[in-house]
Amino acid sequence: MGFLVLIAIALFLAGPVLAIMALAAVRRFERESSSLAQIPQLTSRIYVLEKRILALEAVMRQAPLAQGRAEDVQQAAVSPPEAEPTAPPPASVGLRAATPAQPSGRQPTSVLGGPVIGAAYARSAAPVDLENRIAGNWFNRIGIVAMLIAISSGLKWAFDNNVIGPSGRVAIGVLLGALLLPWSQWLLGKGYSYFSEGIAALGEATLFLSVWAGCQYYMLYSRDVGFAAMIVITGVMAAVAIGRNSQRIALLSLLGGLLTPILVSSGKDQQVVLFAYLILLGSGALAIASKKDWQSLVPIAFIGTQIYFWGWYSEFFHRTSPLERTVVFATLFFFLYGALPVAKAIRGLAPRELDVAIVLLNAFAYSGALFILLWPADKWPLTLLFLALAAGHVGIARLVPASQDDQSALARLLYAGLALTFLTLAVPIRLEGKWITLSFSAEGAILVWTGFRAASNFLRQAGYLLLAISGLRLLLLPPAGGQFLFNPRFAVFAVMIASLGVALWAARTHETDVAEPERTEIGILAVAINMYALIALSLEFWDYFAKAGGGTDAALAQHVSLSVLWTLYATLLLFFGVQKKSALLRWQSLALFGLVVGKVFLYDLSFLDRGYRILSFFVLGAVLLGVSFSYTRKLARERGN
Fold this sequence. Notes:
- The protein is mainly α.
- The chain has helices spanning about 1-60, 70-75, 120-125, 125-160, 165-190, 195-215, 225-245, 245-265, 270-290, 295-315, 325-345, 355-375, 380-400, 405-430, 435-455, 455-475, 490-510, 515-550, 550-580, 585-605, 610-640.
């Protein structure tokens, strides 16, 4: 019974589709035939016009020339014989569309004396647009809704009074929906494009509701038959949209296809059928969008797919479900909606704003799905998938043709940025604690170095950002210490300093390629190297003297050690600043000396015992005197020179 119903529905739909195709072919043949039939008529009219022009030229040559205004008028009306072309082009035959208003106030005329038409109509065209929109478009939609309500009410009355049985009700709905499609095509042939599209939408809605009532409400056939029938309806509407070159009908077909799983849902877990159907529906939408360049289909198909995926996940997914199959379907969805933007980018086409949005949303949805499905039980597969995504996006960025066009650069930048994002996300998934800091700092240094080699400011800025994140993380979450200078904390600081040093070395090597705003960032790198080195040594000395003694003596020794360490470090900075003629190093030295002076005079003088206080002041005073002497001698040498 169900199979026969499906065959009947297919036949009902096949008839209108064949009729539409035949009618379109006939219309096209008529237009071609009418164009061919007009050729002899046009040839005859051209011949008559040529004879009239030749006769007019002969009369003008023989007639005596009048004086005054009559002569001017005559010369303005007829061009000199020598200026006329011997064979006028086809575009010059017939009436001219419009001419400027004449100063005399007379109506413009063509070469044959006829009035020029169209100017007044063009002036009144703008106000008619709103009228057409209200009467032709809005009233069309309202009328369709009213008709749908009237038909539904009438059918409901007939159904409630058992005038028509269930089978008859479904058959009437299918028949009405099928007949609306050729009627829509006939209306299109008459020039009522908006009205015909509304009738096509009404036909699709009638077919969907009729099939749904047959399988869900009256249960005349199974849900599988209803599902297959709705797929047929969706395919027919897609074919109509392509044949009529109508984006609105294609959009209605897609919406109907997205509603189909809800209309025939049984409330059970049918993951394979649902997701396979969404893949087929999305593939069809992408194929049509690519062929016709209809931009509205892709985002609607993507949003509908995501709604179904997460709806299924919240309702049916749990850890005992086939996890691998769900990951495979999520991956297929990601590839499906990522394929079209990738193909455009590789062909060198400029990405539109909608393409960029789809790429970013698709990557975000897929990474979120992987994280929710695999975290925290499957860290290794999750890490490998993120690394594979990073490698794939790097490959896409390299396949995008290099060009000076900003749009082409945007495509490369987009996929390179996603690659970097996936690589960065892979680090904290698998690693923990200090290893995250180590990975981020090393990755940042590599990005800065690669950015200078590839002349990519984007990679350099990404590297600076990762170095800043790793440096902040190290300050907020430092690892535990241990043996003096041989412990995980000092090792992480050493790697951080080395990463900053590599970035600074790359910048100094390509100093000619550095723009002015980036010089500030490079200066921050130089300051950060000394800052982290001083912090690392200070922590080591603090822990060492804390373990060396106990009680009050240990605390006093810690503070004295910091004062001495900072003084010596400032002295080294000053020495290298003078040797290398680096004002930046010298200013760092002076700033650190200022910090030591503040600590000694404000803290050591008040809280340290006499012996420690004497030692702090002696070291600081001696060093400051030496610094003062060095600067005095340097100034004297500069004056002598």
